[in-house]
Give the backbone structure.
Amino acid sequence: MNNFLKLKTIFTKSVYLLQEEPLLKRIIKFVANERKCGTFATKVQHTSEDSYLEFLGNWPNEEKQCFLQDMRIFINFVNEDEEQQLLNEVEPYMKRLRYEYDHWDDAIHGFRETERKHWYPENRKIIDKIRNTGFADEIMPFVHVLDLSSEGVIKPHVDSTRYCGNIIAGLSLLTDSVMRLVRIDEEKYQQNDQSNVQQEYRTQPEQSHTLLASTFHANVLLPRRSLYIMSNTARYHFTHEILPNGVSTFRGQPVQKDRRISIICRNEP
């Protein structure tokens, strides 16, 4: 009789754990996203993603390990048909807009943009796939769609935590491109209530060429239809930019950027 009761107890607990598995997974994922990178640096496993990262300058080993965790690339995140589905939805609106060259904070030139909350059902599945891949909780309801012309450029900048959280995920469509991340003085760009960064959506270094010459940085190849997820130290200890043609290279080879549409998801501040 005692053995029967023990078996019944084990079975009941097993059923409960199976029912709670999605919650447990989300809790584990949340803890992973909120961790301090240095604590887990020794646990980083080098994967094929490393082939899309080019480290330049004198990188401290711990910083490099953190970067490998906080800058992730997912190749072929969508297929050709899914890319076309997304374009079919956003193109009719984008074609009515003109490319802008005088952005209010001077960080982007040659662009047009919109935000979209409601998506066609087949594209909603892709947005949900991005959310499930990069975020433990819900993403901001409005998804940013950024259309950068072939001559367009995103200058080096640091985003503010006032407007979005510690994770950004971007799906790159239509073309390959190179993102550069340059280490900054985090005290100057610290994310707190007293920081000037809080007053703007994004902040640009005064002399980005001087910054590049004096610190270490990484070039990140973003292949067409890939997803990048940038979080924590990669997001706030580095400027990030999309390189223009002429200086857009990866491991010594030129990467010609054409028109680029990115679908960008963020979490809440």
